[in-house]
Structure formats: structure tokens, C-alpha cells
Amino acid sequence: MNDFIYDFPVKVYFGEKAAEKHLTSELAKVGKTVLLAYGGGSIKQNGIYEELTEILKKAGKEVIEFCGIMSNPTYAKVQEGAALAKENKVDFILAVGGGSVIDCCKIVSAQALLKQDIWDYEYDAHGTPTSFIPMGAMVTAFGTGAEMNNGAVITHEEKMVKSALWGAFYDFAILDPTYTMTMPMKQVISGAFDSLSHCMETYMGSPRKINLSDEINEATQRNIIRNIRATIENPGDLQARSELLWAAAMAENGLLKIGKTTDFQCHMLEHQLGAYTNCNHGQGLAVIHPVLYRRMMPEANESFARLAVTVWNIEPSGKDEADLAKAFVDVLGAFIKAIGLPTTFAEMGILEDTDYRAIADSTILTRGCPKVFTADELYDILLECRGRMVKQ
Question: What is the model's pTM?
Fold first, then answer.
């Protein structure tokens, strides 16, 4: 196991009616002006907006709304939120939604107090923000576990890059599984697969020798797989959704990464795909993972073989390491298809003239991946993922 320092700052309130029970006490700790951030407005249709604004009103807060945060939040949207926060001298940010809203606000929190452009500051000057507007997260869509860390994935449309920025940790996060009942089932499944991807991407990192973090990871993967199936069988199964909500948090609260250098090559490739196509993140991962993993054999065979047995319950008798590794990739692909996720870019509606060469050339190559890919190899992977393409 590698050396590490573990420090987890986010306080989590988990359970039904968690906002009703705990939000007022948290609001008492912050100033008067609250930036209420959310996405396309679904919280106004499902009752969450009314619940929260009533709590904010009773707490005596002045509410400034920052709405319309899109999936794959853009850098322009971050700057819009930061300008709004500055103009209104916002004391606190309450982010309500899934990973896109939660990620966007992490950078709004930092940019609002930073004189420099945060993208240039982090990527060119290699600086790290140290001052932030305090924040709380209300999770309505699980999968990313974004409320658990200070990293944010933002699309810079001018640069044609979808990449990480580092902002604030949330002071607290409210995870109420009943809120996830408002999510469309396609979003539930793609989000849950993102959680599984986070686990696999962490597991495949170095060192390859199994440590305690990996064994906790295996249990988390089993939990996600089981509860995806349970949720599909019974969409009203609150226990299954509770498990998926907490599994998403577990995948990104740092526990699974202790003592490891992570992989995340699949994520890096999908992020750039998203920069060029604005595609659904979980669906993109579902298409890429099996193809990428086939290309990672034999370098990753030892880890793949262990996952085949410990996570997917594949009988090891009569199989060598290569057989088990192949069985893992096969069963992962079959699972993706069985739960209704796409297996080609064509199924996602990605257009035929997409510039896969540019996507491959601009993808970050990760140091923790068992196989060190080249841009040409990533290009070949993207071509294999295409399927029968959609014309413009």
C-alpha cells in the first residue's frame, strides 16, 4: 500500500426527510444571502423546490437563484454563476441536483473569490484556490458521488476540452433516497453505472497487489451490480436506491483510493468524447469500457481475473488467468447490454462525422492505467465503439 494522508471534510446527512431534519441547523451557521443553484427546473415539478424555499424562508435567508445548469456544465456557466455570486455578495451556496450542478458550484465557489481566471490559474499558473464561498449539497440524482470531493468536470467549449478543475469541498451533503424517485429510469441506470465505473477505474490503478481499499471496492462493486438489478426489477424499491446512493458516495469519498494511484483512462477518453458530442456520461462509459478493457489485456489480466471471481462469481475451476480475464470483460459487456445501456456510439445517436482523431489526440493519458496507451490506440478504440453511425 502506498503512503497516504486521509482527511474527509464533508458531513453527510443520509436518510428520508434529511433536509427537513437537518438543513435549518446548517443554515443557522451561514450568512443571510444564499445562492440556490439547480438545473433545468425539474425540482419545481417534483416538490423539492417548494420544500427548500420554505426552509430557506423560515431561516430568514435572502435567496438568489442560479438555474439552468446543464448536463456537462460549461465554463461559461461557471463564470455566470461566479458573477452572480459576486454581484449579490453571496454568503452561501446551496446546490440542488446531480453531479453537474454539484460540480459547477464547486468552481463557482472558488471563482467568485479569485481575481484570476480559474482555468488559467489552475492549468497555466498551476495554482490551487484557497478561498471559497461555503456550500451545501442536496443530492437528487446519484451516480457521480460529486458531493464527496472537490474535483469538478467542466467543459470549456472554446478550448474543446472537458476536464477537471479543483474547487471547494461541500461543508455538508444531504442524501435523501426518496429524491431519486424523481429521476427517469435511464438516468438512474446510467448514473449507477458511472458509480461502478468509478470503482473499476480505482481498482485497476497501481499498485496491482490487492490492499484493504481494493477489498472494500470489490464489496462496493457487488453492491452496485445487485442493486442496479433490483432497481430495474422494482423501480419503487427504496432500499435498492438507498444502497446505490451510498455506493456512489463510497466510490468518491476517497476510501477506495487510499494507498493507490488510480487508472481513470476510460473516464479521460469519455470526457473528451463528451467535449465533442455533449453525450450522456454514463452511457459513454458503458460503450467504451468493454472495448478499452479488451485492449488492456494481458497487462491487466491479474486484476481482471480476480474481479471475475470476487465480483462476478465466475467459477475459476479449469480456467487460467487469461481465461478468467476474458470472462470478466465478457460478463461486463453482457451486463451493460442486459441493463439497457448502449453498446455502441450509434445507439447513443452520436453522429458519423464526429472527429474521433481530435478526441483521441486531446485525451489525457493516465499514469495509473495497467497499459500505457498511445493516442493512436485510443483512436482505434473509438472507431471500434462506433457501430452503425448516424449521419448529420
Answer: 0.95
Please list, in sequence order, all residues whose beta carbon lies within 8 angstroms of the beta carbon of residue 346, skipping any fewer than 6 positions away: 386, 387, 388, 389, 390
CATH number at residue 57: 3.40.50.1970
* Domain enclosing residue 206, as ranges: 184-385
Coil, strand or helix at 270: helix
For 73-101, how does the pLDDT look when each residue is reduced to its tens digit (9 = 90+)?
999 999 999 999 999 999 999 999 999 99
Query: Is the same domain home to 291 and 323?
Result: yes
Are 225 and 146 found together in one domain? Answer: no
Pairing of strands 92-97, 62-66: unpaired
274-291 residue pLDDT tens: 999 999 999 999 999 999
Determine the 3-state secondary structure of 36 from DSSP: strand
- Residues ≥6 apart with Cβ < 8 Å to 361: 375, 379
Amino acid at 354: T
Residue 193 CA to residue 190 CA, distance in Å, equals 5
Is the domain of 207 the same as that of 141?
no
Number of Cβ atoms within 10 Å of the Cβ of 175:
23
